[in-house]
Every structure is written in C-alpha cells, then in structure tokens.
Amino acid sequence: NAGVTQTPKFQVLKTGQSMTLQCAQDMNHEYMSWYRQDPGMGLRLIHYSVGAGITDQGEVPNGYNVSRSTTEDFPLRLLSAAPSQTSVYFCASSYSRPTGLSSGNTIYFGEGSWLTVV
Amino acid sequence: KQEVTQIPAALSVPEGENLVLNCSFTDSAIYNLQWFRQDPGKGLTSLLLIQSSQREQTSGRLNASLDKSSGRSTLYIAASQPGDSATYLCAGGDYGGSQGNLIFGKGTKLSVKP
C-alpha cells in the first residue's frame, strides 16, 4: 500500500517557468489537498478537493492551479514560478474532509516536494 | 477564522522525562483536534485525533486532551525517548470558517537528550 505519493522530490526552477507537482493516492480517498510549508509560517493550505471534478481555494491559492479528473490524482501546477514560491509542498488525503464528524478522518501526508525558484 | 498556536516553539528535555506540549485555538466550534509528528525532511504522520465530543485519546505513551471551553489541547508524552525527537504539530478546524479544512499550528520542535 503506497499511501500518498508525490513527485518530484526535489526541483529547481527558473523564474517564469511552469511545472506540475504530481500527487497520487491509492486509498480511494475523496478529499485531497496541497499545503506549502515555510519557516516561521507553518503549513498553509493552497487548494483542496472533495472529489473528482471538484476543487476549491485554500488560504494561499495565487500562482497555483489544480484539477481533479480522477479520484487518485491531484496535480498542482505552478503557472509562472516566482522566488516567493520556493517552499516545501505537501500533498495530503483523507476519506472525507478532515474536520468532518466521522471518526475515521485520519489524514495522510506525502513525503514532500522541495521546490527552489531562482 | 480559526487560529492555532503552539508554545513553546522548541523544547529540550533529558531522556525519561514526562512532558506536555501545548496547543491553543481561537474558535471553540472546532470539530476535531489532531496531533501530528514530523521528522526532518519527511511528511507529517498522524498521532492522535480527538473528536469534539471526546475529552482525550491515548496511544501507547501518548495522551492527548481537548478542552473546547478553554480553547486548549495538550499532548502528554510519558517516559520520553531520543526517538521521540521531532516536530509536533497540532491542527484543528471547523465546518464554517475553515470549510472543513485543517488549520495548523507552527509546531513545537522537541529534542530528547540521551
């Protein structure tokens, strides 16, 4: 059971380039999300999805785009990379919204993607 | 909007000591409170989840409590070991302001000295 898989692990981009961070889960989870983690800022939600075809913005969505064509995959696209997007990105998934009333809403995180924009 | 705070930012203790990590939140309408562990260069691992109707959860040497009225949660680690060294994060949320998503604290970096 692979859990949540993120690729690539490390990436260096030049300002203005675009790229896609891949995220896949094999647990048939409906909820998936992307966070960025910066020193002194903690984890901040970028975008999330509650099912295939449904996405919504989180706290810091500007400069990022997402889509959810399948239950398994939730790619994060950087449209035109900026140095301010240098960060560690985490993908996470759970059966339903993590603050839902169901007791089984354990959320699973990927290992992270380290992105540097120069 | 829910805000989650963790104090202290870092903590160093000798092996064998019992310790408490603190987490406070601003909105008592919180649905659940979760504690995570993060090792350097790794993702987050869920440790304990406390539903709003519960007061505490236990897993091995870990015990987490939730007091909605005071806006506080604590993670108690008994008989700490060097392998417990990591950053511990708490996260909560509600169905209103955070739309069912988790709001994270900035974490407490724990170092357990042999």
Explain this structure.
Chain A has 118 residues and is mainly beta. Helices cover 0% and strands 49% of the residues of chain A. Chain B has 114 residues and is mainly β. Chain B has strands at residues 4-7, 10-14, 19-25, 32-38, 44-51, 56-59, 62-67, 72-77, 86-93, 103-104, 108-113. The mean pLDDT of chain B is 91. The interface between A and B is medium-sized, with 29 and 28 residues.
Key phrases:
heterodimer; A: 118 residues; mainly beta; 4-stranded antiparallel beta sheet; 49% strand; B: 114 residues; 6-stranded mixed beta sheet; 5-stranded antiparallel beta sheet; 11 strands; 0% helix; 55% strand; globular
Chart the SSEs and their pairings.
The complex is a heterodimer of chains A (118) and B (114).
Chain A (H helix, E strand, L loop, with lengths): L3 E4 L2 E4 L5 E7 L5 E8 L3 E10 L2 E4 L6 E3 L9 E3 L8 E8 L13 E2 L3 E5 L1
Parallel strand pairs in A: 2-11
Antiparallel strand pairs in A: 1-3, 3-8, 4-5, 4-9, 5-6, 7-8, 9-10, 9-11
Chain B lengths: L3 E4 L2 E5 L4 E7 L6 E7 L5 E8 L4 E4 L2 E6 L4 E6 L8 E8 L9 E2 L3 E6 L1
Parallel strand pairs in B: 2-11
Antiparallel strand pairs in B: 1-3, 3-8, 4-5, 4-9, 6-7, 7-8, 9-10, 9-11
